[in-house]
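Issue 218. Parser rejects a valid record. Input:
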Amino acid sequence: MERENITIETPIDKHVVVLKSFITGREQRILTNIFVSGMKDVKVSAINQDLNVPEVNTALIDKAEDEAWRLVIVSIDGHKDGDVIDGKPYSLIDAVLDMKLKDYEAVSNKVKEVTQDKHFESQKKI
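Output the parser choked on:
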């Protein structure tokens, strides 16, 4: 499926980041399954209205964020994930993580907006 893209420029180093404008239900399922697969000890008691959730594994959060970046980011400064640059495969994840904090936050926040469907929410008419 062809999607419209969104282009942003990071505030500090002016990286040009192209992102998909939305994710599909299938892609959302991938992100959800990362968390669900890591929560083995969830216990729910309808009688006591009790929910026991184990400690959240920070590795799962990192893994989900990495996967969201892979699903949403098309390119950074014209480079796509896996492009060979100077004999090495380009990594979108490493590129985002190596950005200055304000640039990282700009990209991370935009990816969150896309995965939470903020663009389309703002276009809804009530």
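Fixed in the parser; the record now loads. Helices lie at 25-38, 58-72, 92-97, 101-115, 118-123.
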